[in-house]
Amino acid sequence: MPLMDHLRELRNRVIKALVFVALGMGVGFTVFEPVWDFLQRPYCSLPAEVRNDDGCGLNYTGIFDGFFLYFQVSLIVGLLVSSPFWLYQLWAFIAPALRGKEKRYTYLFVGFAVPLFLLGATVAYFVTAKGMEIMFSFAPEGATALITLPNYLGYIIMMLAVFGAAFVLPLIVVLLNFLGVLPHRMIAKWRRVIIFLAFVFAAIATPGGDPFTMLALGIPVVALFEIAELIAFVNDRRRGRDRDPLAELDDDELSPLDDADSAAGTTPNR
């Protein structure tokens, strides 16, 4: 297909995806109250002495903060509600470039990625309150926490997104192994570095950066990575990738090339 036809196809797919997201935002405006109550619940579950307030109301400092809160929550709901439709538009654009095996692996990747992302977001939702309690404990005595609406919404969304995306990362390792790009012996060689980087990522990516939240993210990701490595090991054994062609030779045994050179009376160049 010519380049201009690709660009027209991309434009049409993007417009259709935006229409579906806009419709989803309309749904988000109608369900704003229950969704906001759900997102605010970790903050409301904090002890009253931690929040310095008997209620669980958040503060705002700008005239448009309330409107932007509605807009952002509705956008998030819209993206989630319309995800099957805009994901289909994305898939319809890239699918013609994929071969049969790549399409099959993509189906499997999406089928496992969605539950893993939801699992990570669920873990984040339940550790958010404890992470905030730890961070609030560092405030000096007599200080009052004035958490604003944008600040809290950014924090909770970042937690859900980071945990969800981190839980999907080991699945990418499995996908690369199945595609033949990342063999198990390379994963095993760099295992310690990968585990170290997993905890570094957890320390940097989590919004709070407290040890509890870092461990709550790092430990499950390392466990999922170990499962991914086991799957890669079994897959490579099944395909015979890990088999060393010289493993059955003795240290002083000539290779077939040396035997051929000896029979021909020639000496290979060293």
Automatic annotation (TrEMBL):
GO terms for cellular component: TAT protein transport complex. GO terms for molecular function: proton motive force dependent protein transmembrane transporter activity. Residues 247-261 have a biased composition (Acidic residues). It is found in: Cell membrane; Membrane. Its main location: membrane. Belongs to the TatC family. Part of the twin-arginine translocation (Tat) system that transports large folded proteins containing a characteristic twin-arginine motif in their signal peptide across membranes. Together with TatB, TatC is part of a receptor directly interacting with Tat signal peptides. The Tat system comprises two distinct complexes: a TatABC complex, containing multiple copies of TatA, TatB and TatC subunits, and a separate TatA complex, containing only TatA subunits. Substrates initially bind to the TatABC complex, which probably triggers association of the separate TatA complex to form the active translocon. HAMAP family: TatC (MF_00902). This is Sec-independent protein translocase protein TatC. The lineage of its organism: Bacteria, Bacillati, Actinomycetota, Actinomycetes, Streptosporangiales.
